[in-house]
Amino acid sequence: MDTETPLEERLVPSEWPTQGNAKIAFIGEAPSTEELEEGRPFVGPAGRLFNAMLRAANIDRSACFIGNVFQFKLPENSTVAYRKFVGEAEYKAVWQKNVARLKDELETYGPNVVVPLGNTALLALAGTANIGSLRGHVVPAVPPMPPFKLLPTYHPAFVLRQIKLYTIVVLDFVKADAEARRGPEIIYPKRELIINPTIDEVEHYLAEWEKTDLLSCDIETGWSMIRGIAFAPNQEIAMYVPFVTLDRHDRNYWRTLDEEVRAWRAVKRILESPVPKLGQNFAHYDWIWLFKQAGIKVRNLRHDTRLLHHALYAELPKSLGFMAANYSTQGAWKHWAEHSGIRKKDRREKRDE
Question: In what order do the strands lie in the sheet with 139-140?
Fold first, then answer.
């Protein structure tokens, strides 16, 4: 422990594993006063909670890499305060220096999974500070970082103020441990996605899926219209039946009125068929839209996954992103393009190629 350097000038180096081969790296924002005094990351109040969550997840701290984006204490423990204190240009230079140092350390360690703890670490590793959207999702790091496998979650200091998040973070740690055991590659499930179907494909697949044991259904709405409806008979294949598209001047996906009528008839037939159906928030949203906007009376709605989640865990959030993070490796599709940095215009141009 450094006792000669003034406290405000001390740096807290990253903690390297001393045993085991967990291959997990936990990255926070910056040390607090107790970390400066001890010369180790995560030993203050947030650190003690961090240790408790590691034990609950059956992860040995001594087998992990533990560090921060900044190795010095931030004024008021805030990047905003520090940015105002030193100015934008100086902050940018210090930020780049610390991100480069963190990159070198992680490349040396070679983790199978990196757990960004909070917005600052997520920004350094994934280029976004939206921890609420990406928490619990398996996503790749972005340049200048190598494409490390990331599993972001809340910072223990935030959990101290929102203790209801304790179990959520423990579950994220368990998920991170499982991902570390799978190796450094992100392994997404293989799926066939039919997103620009022909009318013959719509009629063929929907007729076949009337024979399935359970059919997942989901609608997309906008501008007071049903933009499209997705169907999936299992986890391996899904089809989106569009009606409204921004790719064409008339906003109509189907080229002729006859094709659009045939598409609606195929959709109506399967939704009103006896095949058991499930959907996310289907009972409170999709069913009402289908009935009021299209005159379709959905038959045999077996499960609403949002209601099932709420019945099991009434105290937990019920957003699509939260549930996808907990029940799926792939996460919510709405966050994929946002994280990749691809603009909507680029996605439209790519579809037209």
Answer: 65-68, 24-28, 113-116, 149-150, 139-140
Angle between helices 45-56 and 166-182 (to 10 degrees): 60
pLDDT tens per residue, range 306-329: 999 888 888 788 877 788 787 776
E strands present in the chain: 24-28, 65-68, 113-116, 139-140, 149-150, 192-194, 215-222, 225-232, 237-242, 277-279, 301-304
Distance CA 239, CA 200 (A): 13
Whether the predicted pLDDT of 345 surpasses 50: no
pTM, entire model = 0.76
The rounded distance, in Å, linking the Cα atoms of 66 and 14 is 6
Strands 225-232 and 301-304: unpaired
- With a CB cutoff of 8 Å and minimum separation 6, the contacts of 342 are none
- Residues of the domain holding 82: 7-182
What is d(CA 105, CA 282) in angstroms, rounded to the nearest whole number? 47
pLDDT, one tens digit per residue, over 240-265 is 999 999 888 889 999 999 999 999 99
User: In this structure, what DSSP letter does residue 285 have?
Assistant: I
Q: Are residues 272 and 296 in contact, defined by beta-carbon separation less than 8 angstroms?
A: yes
**CB of 148 within 8 A of CB of 60?**
no
In a domain, 216, yes or no: yes
SS3 of 326-343: HHCCCCCHHHHHHHHCCC
Question: In terms of domains, do 30 and 139 share one?
Answer: yes
| 293 and 164 co-located in one domain | no
Tokens of 230: 């997705």
Residue of 183, 10, 30 lying closest to 118 (CA atoms):
30
Q: Which of 15, 11, 139 is nearest to 65 (CA)?
A: 15
Beta-carbon contacts of residue 302 (< 8 Å; ≥ 6 apart): 214, 276, 277, 278
